[in-house]
Amino acid sequence: MVTVLERDSELRRRAWDAAAGVVDPEIPVLTIADLGVLRDVVLDGDHVEVAITPTYSGCPAMNMIALEIELALERAGFRQPKVRTVLSPAWTTDWMSEEGRHKLRAYGIAPPQASSSRRALFGEQAIACPQCGSDKTELLSEFGSTSCKALWRCKACREPFDYFKCH
């Protein structure tokens, strides 16, 4: 016999897994679970609501992410799923998974180097080049290909690269 609690737990896990597989349209090697954007899944009877927190309050990818979450949940058998944006607490790079950081580096983007609280106290550390690993790098622009990244260049291998800003 399956209890209501067990059924709800299984449904919640199935909904979480469906939503967690949605990729970030700006960095397609990362899922919203890797980024820590996926915050919660709530079941209410047959309805499911997913809570997400944007990396930036004006992040243009959030509408696409919400639509992709709804589609993923519908494909998983959930009817009329809802996506709710949660702005508080604000997203921080501390929520990014270790696996997500490794995926960024492999994709050629330097991951955030320290926790957001450490950065606030001590400033940005030297950013290691994701291509060659050298810390002999320089900031070219506070803004890279998206608002959450900065453009850097490695002085050793001379390659430009994006750095996912710590915040």
From TrEMBL:
Which Pfam families does the UniProt entry name for this protein? FeS_assembly_P (PF01883), Zn_ribbon_PaaD (PF23451)
What is the protein name given in its UniProt record? Phenylacetate-CoA oxygenase subunit PaaJ
Organism from which the protein derives? Bradyrhizobium japonicum
Q: Which SUPFAM superfamilies does its entry note?
A: Fe-S cluster assembly (FSCA) domain-like
MIP18 family-like domain location? 17-74
Sequence ranges assigned to domain PaaD zinc beta ribbon in this UniProt record: 116-165
Q: Which Gene3D superfamilies match?
A: Fe-S cluster assembly (FSCA)
InterPro entries xrefs: Fe-S_Maturation_MIP18, FSCA_dom_sf, MIP18-like, PaaD-like, Zn_ribbon_PaaD
